[in-house]
Amino acid sequence: MALGVGSTAYGLYQFYSIFTMWPEEVRGDLRAGIKAKHQNDLNLSERYLRRAWETAQTLPLVRFSAEPHLKLSGIAIALAEVLEANDRPQPAYEVYSGALSQLQNVQGLSGRERMRAVSIAAKLGEMAEVYQQPPEEEERWLTWAVEEVLHIVREGQPRETVNVEGASADTPMMLAELDLPVWVSKSDVGAPLEALGKFYAREGKPEYATALYLQATSLLIPPPASKRQASTEELCRGAQLMNNLSDLMLQGPPPDNQRNAEKWARQSLSIIEKAKASAKGNVDGIDICEHTLAAVLFNLGSLLEMAGDYKQSAGLYKASLDQSNRIGMREGTMQARFALRRIERAVNKQSAATSSSTTEAA
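The line above is the sequence of TPR repeat-containing protein P27G11.02; the predicted structure tokens follow.
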């Protein structure tokens, strides 16, 4: 009992102590707003957080000490999350865009504050897709996020690394070859690249999507000669991108498109196997691999079906069905079952045609 009371007291101390970094004028509303959110009283939470957001904007920046815009935007994000959770996407969208606009209009932001702006822009791009805004709106947010993160990475490089002799300003910058600042993770850089790549793939611009996917993949999965070890999550996300590349290859000109698509799909499968082996029972980051595995097996089955190899195709569809069932992936289960029925009909039709030809020959 004493241990339980002590643990509870320590938890409450942590909960309340994190608010001391904010000025007293907003501290109480922030604390009450977060508490109401945890109690699922979203209307009350919104009232407190909105008042904290409005009050914060009237205070001089010196009241927020170091990296003030990180703290200010943090209040906006907390408010926007509550609005979206309360099924009010339009006000949430407005709060996010207002917070981003403030960050964009400030000179001399710290690196972390600039990355906060990148994250908000990527969130706005995601919301533009989910809530069916015009494609131009989604592209605008995601393009800004990618351009800003590339500026951040490029500015952090030694002059001789960025300005290679004989290279023009338009020379592509391979992100995997550069040293990222300590406050920027590979996922921070890769996420906006991946999001913009998905947008271009959806909009029928495979050449743009391919370039972005390749950059993001090179960040997540180091080359064989590299000494850097990718984490399980990085390997799984890289495998997912390779599977996306496989899908994109089919939009290219024949006859190489199918061969390249199969190459990327098999590479994705190999990376998944490596990630699962390196995880050694640790489930952190492995969920992406489990879902990507079902998709890759299905894609490989589709490619072999297109090539007329029904036997191997059926085996892959069956493996995808088993994997989808195991992880509760309903859509994957339905697609795999439909594909297996299609293969069965094709094999029966092929057998009937062969039997007819044999009879006519006799």
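Note on the example: Confidence is low (pLDDT under 50) at residues 1-17, 158-172. The two ends are 89 Å apart (CA to CA).
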